[in-house]
Amino acid sequence: MFARQRSRCGNSPSNKVSAQKARQWSPERLHCLFIHLGGNDMLQRKYAGYLYVLPGFLLILLFIYFPIVQNIQFSLFEWSAFSADKTFVGLAQYAKLFHDPIFYQALVNNIYYAVISLIFQVFGGLVLAAVLEDKVFRKISPLFRTIYFTPVIISITVIALLFDFIYHPQVGLLNGFLSAIGLESWTRAWVGDSATAIFAAIAVSQWQSIGYIMMLFIVAIQKIPQELYEAAEIDGASKIRMFFHVTVPQVREMTFVTSTITLAGAFTVFNEVYILTGGGPGHASEVLGTYLYQSAFVHDQMGYASTIANVILAITLLISLVQMKLSKTGEE
Amino acid sequence: MKRILRFATGLLLIFSLATGCSTADTPKQASADPGGNQVSPAADQQVTLRFFHRWPRDPDKTYFEQVVKAFEQENPNIKIETEAVLNDAYKEKISVLLGTDNPPDIYFSWSGEYAYKFVRGGKALDLTSYAQEDKAWHDQLMESQLVPFTLDNKLYGVPLTIDGKTFFYNKDIFAKLNLAVPTTWSEFLSTLQTLKDNGYTPITFGNKAPWASSHYIGTLNQRMVDESTREKDYNRATGTFEDPGYVEALKKMQELIPYFNKDVNGLDHEFARQLFIDQKAAIFYAETAEVRLVEPKTKFPWGFLDFPAIEGGKGNPKFLTGAPEGFMISATTKHPKEAVKFLQFLTSKAQAEKFVKDVGKYSAVKGAVNANTATPLGIEAVERVTAAEGLALWLDTDLDIKIVDAYLAGTQQMLNGEKSPEEIMQDVRKAAQQVREQSK
Question: Which of B253, B186, B204 is CA-nearest to residue B420?
């Protein structure tokens, strides 16, 4: 194929039309360029492939790896957004971060986020998916699938504002509901109370994301061969046993995928917390994302914010590595 | 050789694709003020100014649109591009914008430390010479309102509004319970107790966005700590906050907690205001700028109540908490003269009167708030601001943001009963130490 096209890329301008054509940028021309770079057919086979991935590679380099490296560099300086001079402080900001009680508060909140999300989204999503895929619910499952999936397509800003009304201490739906069923003593200022603020935000995420995880599991369950269930049924397995002994092992791959998504999401969460509580009261519901934002755009400590960003990166990277190691695959 | 050249061209093409968006800006900008537009020399040159403020909502928005239009008609060679974003977003955006090579020419700023940090960063134009040139314009601005825009005897901003914090109280409820207006802290507390005993919420307070508590703390600090100590502590380079008055001030705030409505940290300031309007609460600590938001909606008589004098306090009880807001000009603007001209137009008497009338806020231009432009309550509010013997600026714009954060996060927890005044002050001192070290 290359050989055939090579004839059209010759330097001899015998064919005027093709010479003219060659002056404009066309896929053919680009190909010719690559072939020229290759020199002869052997070299060309060897390198042409790399050249084709070059544009994509450069874009990733420019927009992902370059900012990461630059961010690491930024974290070594103390600087403000509206002043040009940066002061080199070395690793001082990392030392400061690891002595910062707010950082640990935020980290603990992120860990709450991760654990609760794993239980509700990954396990809960799997249960929901299994229930909806069961024969008994075949008829109505499309309806429920849509219902559970709807929150996923609503903007998180809208959702957070919506929950603002639900959590409102005096006119909110939640407190109103609790009073109506006689649990007056349970009512509280959900987002204004240090003990509940972070959980109020976590609850919103569960409500929003469970549908997405459920959808992924439904796809995985649909790929399980029906024979396995039939065999289990003949052996007299109950629905619950079938779930644990057929469904769970069969969707193992997907479980790794969803838990990676959920965990990475739990450590980079920002919107829900920012809109609902702003990290307050005090710093009770601060997460790494909001603390990063505060440091950068409110306190104007850009270097410190970069430091936090790098720590978040390190945490999520570590989680993905551990998970890849555990799953030992990467097929899906 | 030819191959390498072609390879390089290919690379260049890819890079120009990737960076296309950022480089495309430069030529556009250059053509935005096309000095070479054929005809005439300097005087008639077409000039574009970028104007950035924080009022994207009406009535302010319309007012500024009209001012810009009127100014452009008077000065056909100047064009003004306006952009506006709301409060908190403004704070974040302006910091970033001023860091770029292309900051807005004229931008809004709060006064005090908030403005000074722009000055220190070299982002604000020194307006002193312009003020000296146009004495008449300078003299019609309220002097007291220029102070928070002045650093080292140089003027860096032009105040647009004046504002002060005072209690609004429901005269109906006070009359019903036969209550006199309290003038001292102990009288104030017993008044609150009476209100509470009679089933009213004494003070409505929403601190979900924690700046609301900064106004209480700012006033209480001013009342408890003597002037020179406070001035020293509020200065970035010398603040230590070791005076016991600061702890006392927070304790006074603590004394008010039983008289606030429930769930203060879960309610926002707007909701608190609504409770006052709905007569569910008797007293509301508010800015004079809020008169325009409260007055049209209330169906009962109400008035102003000065923050009471505190027994044992070392500060002057005739001070008022409040601050002007205004505009600054970017130090790197290419058209300082035109930018100053716009601000002079904006703070001319005619425009200021229109501002008071249309927007309902109070102008820093002398005499702009009068019987033609404001309600009697509005005039009274302005009299209170101008009669004050001094201004204690908003705590959250007067102090370095790190100290503010220690204060506000701590106060939120104190309101929840999780932190003591002493613990808050420990955090504040720690933050102050960091700021001191930074300012060296």
Answer: B253
